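User: I'm putting together a teaching handout on how multi-component assemblies are represented. Below are the sequence lines for each component of a complex, exactly as they appear in our records. Could you produce the 3D structure of the whole assembly as structure tokens, so the students can see both representations side by side? Please keep the chain order the same as the input.
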Amino acid sequence: MAQKNRLKYILLGLLKKQRQTGYDLAKSFDSDIGEFWTANHSQIYPLLKRMEADHLIAHEAITVGQKLQKKQYYMTSAGQQTFNAWLKSPSDLTGSHDEFILKLFFIDDPKSELLRPMITMQQQYHDEKLHHLEQQFQEKFPNQKRIDQDFGHSLVLRHAIDRERGYSNWLAEMVKTIKTE
Amino acid sequence: MAQKNRLKYILLGLLKKQRQTGYDLAKSFDSDIGEFWTANHSQIYPLLKRMEADHLIAHEAITVGQKLQKKQYYMTSAGQQTFNAWLKSPSDLTGSHDEFILKLFFIDDPKSELLRPMITMQQQYHDEKLHHLEQQFQEKFPNQKRIDQDFGHSLVLRHAIDRERGYSNWLAEMVKTIKTE
DNA sequence: CAAGTCATGTAAAAAGTTACATGATTGA
DNA sequence: TCAATCATGTAACTTTTTACATGACTTG
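Assistant: Of course. Below is the structure of the complete assembly, with chains in the same order as your input.
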């Protein structure tokens, strides 16, 4: 597999919230989910067909006006199960397509018992990553001379560190929020 | 094109720093550049061939020990030009593969006159994005009830806002750094 | 001398982008 | 009525991943 077909899970997650057409799903990538993932209708339509063939979703044909045929897609129970299994599976974030964020997006209940273990795993990952990055910075840029020699690299590494710090803080905030819920 | 072949520019940028083999280039994606982009050797080797056919790079065969053949790749002047043109071209960041960061990585001179205009463009983009996201949050989550109804979405949106704020701060810091240089 | 790393490749498949194509409905 | 938007699809191509494949060098 080229990737783990995250788009499939995104579509399932969106359909879980409400039954909708391929067109509606495609629009979601211009706003909401668009902050974290992109997809075009030309990728969505064929995938919906495949998912229907796999019995993860089904559709109801609706006629609008005189002729316009819409396909209102909805999740099957198999789709539900597949989606739930994905939520529980370990998240990877190769290529900066952060799968954890993706999963989080679909957990609408603040009391979900999935949240805490997911966050804990993520905290561990990001703490380690932050530590690793800080070490890298120390090694590669111990003084101003090195920074001036490879300025862009130092900026980018600093950005990565900032990003991880921000990520960690955000996770810590999250823990507080669900604690008081 | 499926994307704008950013990997090509990454390889050029890495070769600009020093001539090296495909194997060496592949290793870079385990550390350095690995924070921002991933690539496997199976993608790198064929691309190097294509780039050589396009005269962007060339190689020198080196024999190590008795038989081992290495291909030491290096940039041609055409490659230089292509790379420089890329640095000056507008950056897009669809799919969270942030091209600006990628470009920055390759600007090793803190006095480069490319930096300021690039940063300015980026600041504008991220300020607008931040504003847009904050508005989104206000619209979608005006009260706690809405947050509880769509908890994950709210967290993820908050994360996006944090991320943009972090990005903006980082850009502002950068401006200060290059100012005093 | 064996394990780990260095070194280079190809093949098959999945994922994603861009372009091509068509037609209906809605609101100004 | 005309432009914008709704709605669905296919084709061609590029990018990316995973797996297959081979062999040399280095260090303990």
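A couple of points students might notice: Residues 1-3, 5, 7, 38-40, 42-43, 64-69 of chain B lie near DNA strand D (CB under 10 Å from a C1'). The two ends of chain B are 40 Å apart (CA to CA).
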